[in-house]
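Researcher: Here's a chain I'd like modeled. Treat it as a single chain, no partners, no ligands.
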Amino acid sequence: MENRDIIAIGASAGGLTALTRLFGAMPKGWAPTVFVVLHITPNATSVLPQLLERIGWLPAFHPVDGEPIRPSHIHVAPPDHHLLVHRDRVLVRRGPRENRTRPAVDPLFRSAGVAFGSRVVGVVLSGTLDDGTSGLRAIRRCGGIGVVQDPDDAEWPGMPQSAIDNGEADHVLPLAHMPALLYRLAAEPAPSGPPVPLDVATEARIAEQEFTAVSEDTNAVGKPTTLSCPECGGGLSEIHDGPVLRFRCHVGHAYSPDSMEAAQAEAMETALWVALRTHEERVELFQRLGDYARERGQDLIAANWDSQKQEARKNAELLRAVLSKPDVRNTSSQKKR
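Model: Modeled as a single isolated chain. Structure tokens:
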């Protein structure tokens, strides 16, 4: 019988410190197969495998698309690519961003649950917002186990707290106690898991498809809404995922509640700045038109332009007042720090 020897780990802000502490305390001689997603800048040159390998626990590397899974290695998601598993192979895909990021934790967790079922232990470490919550639920629905860093022990508690609040944590503990737990879980035989839920398999497939249209898959897992995708403008479907309401568009962009809120807050702020710039340009335009009319003795026309200038100036001042408020982008990332 196989053991729980597949460890899938997700982290964001504060994640490098957490991974360093976790891997540095792992029992010597224990060599599970590990997959890691850490939110990183898309255009950065990643040295994360070198940093993790320097710790001295297991070899770490950025896999290439389609290569066989390497047992007893740490598979690290490269920048701007989702890290997925499919049967006995690794997929490295530039599929649609999920939760406004690529790589994202949820796609890795879903694919691991589909591929390995009850052998998977999903681990959520330090980070903001709520990436990993839905993926951890998928792992547990496939028979795996959810382990979450104690938010009080995390540099950024948002991701761990979200997993806990939504009931997806089988174990909550500080990093100092996590290696012993993971070692104990890995020594246990993996029980026979339930059939892979159809919606989990469908969403795992969406992440694999990169530039292929996925509207049929999206319709299969969600209900259409009148909301639009903050990234591409397409229609969003809502997905009832246990206690969480998530969203996915027809090309595959996916949003947790916190990431959807953050995306809309950012779009709103952008729209306000565009409106402010437009009103300031209108003030200048009406000033020029009024001056031109006065030079030609057209006082009534000039007065009309002056009135419109004053109205545009009032609107610009109102927009400045709104943009100056500290809560204009009061996102969940700010509330959950």
